[in-house]
Amino acid sequence: MTDGLIDALQAKHLRDLKPYESARRLFSGGQDWLNANESPFVGEYSLDSHKLNRYPDCQPKAVIQAYAAYAGVTPEQVLVSRGADEGIELLIRAFCDAGQDSILICPPTYGMYAISAETFNVKVNKAPLNADFSLNLDAMAEFVGKVKIVFICSPNNPTGTQVAPEQIEQALALFAGSALVAVDEAYIEFAQGQGWAGQLANYPNLVVLRTLSKAFGLAGIRCGFTLASPAIIQVLLKAIAPYPLAEPVAQIAAQALSPQGLAWMREKVEVLNVLRQRLQDQLQTLGDFVQVGDCQANFILLRSQYKQGLMDDLVAQGILIRDQSKQPGLENCLRISIGTEEQNQRLVAAMQRFFEEKAR
Description:
Elements: H1 3-9, H2 23-26, E1 32-33, H3 61-71, E2 78-81, H4 83-95, E3 102-105, H5 112-119, E4 123-126, H6 137-141, E5 149-153, H7 165-174, E6 180-184, E7 206-211, E8 224-227, H8 230-239, H9 247-256, H10 259-284, E9 290-291, E10 299-303, H11 307-316, E11 319-320, E12 322-323, E13 333-337, H12 341-359
Parallel strand pairs: 1-11, 3-4, 3-5, 5-6, 6-7
Antiparallel strand pairs: 2-8, 7-8, 9-10, 10-13, 12-13
Helix pairs in contact: 3-9, 4-5, 4-8, 10-12
């Protein structure tokens, strides 16, 4: 087929869309990957190959039960998928009619909410966060009855801020009769508080998104969870693929959710929180940076007048961080994932050299 024919055959709503600019698409190579909010640590896992000739379970019982116990919910309130990204897509596909319905997002925030909606020809409405990155509930109220799903990221990527509980309660009340409120808790293990999984019984329109990609150090296996009422889970099961979780993924996830796996995860979270504070303190001595938002996740967001030059200099040295300056309210902002002590020190040394040269 010619390129012209392919262009003519593709869905009209996709023609002007650009794919999500993931960390791996933007940059490859480098020695210090501090641009994707991954854990720098990885555990040890075993694999039983005896079942690899069979199709896996759609919802592996061992994984579902283990995550339900970890999150403090019932197995009927859990759906496992290929990362929380698939959970986002399933919500949009299952509850929004293409070409008719809309979702609501609160930028600056995670980009996949909009990308997923646009891919399925679902309109994206925006209620930008306030200057302090709290929810603008007045702006959100204008969309009551006009959207099917409201996405709230808490802790928020890329600002590292948690949404105050009373604000989420107000959002749930605002949309109680008209929309689902999906609270994305990909970074909840790094944050203060317990998250919203324990409130599912109190709010029928509440959905919680979780993942093993961050605190569990398992971004490579693509395993996420959607927590919601049994009724919502049953709707999502109508839209999910027949075999969403590969057998090796299910085995590794079950091991990660075992008592030993959870102990490993909690230990690494403590280590990363200490490294995050240490890195914050060191970067503040360099002079040019202004911290933006909060640090309730495994990354730091900083603003620098030398944003582009610094970014280029670090990439040239194989140190990859993430430019967030295209997001509203985040001009000249760079996001730095927390690495190992050695990675963080290479970053600090490289930044120090950069600013010393600027001062000459």
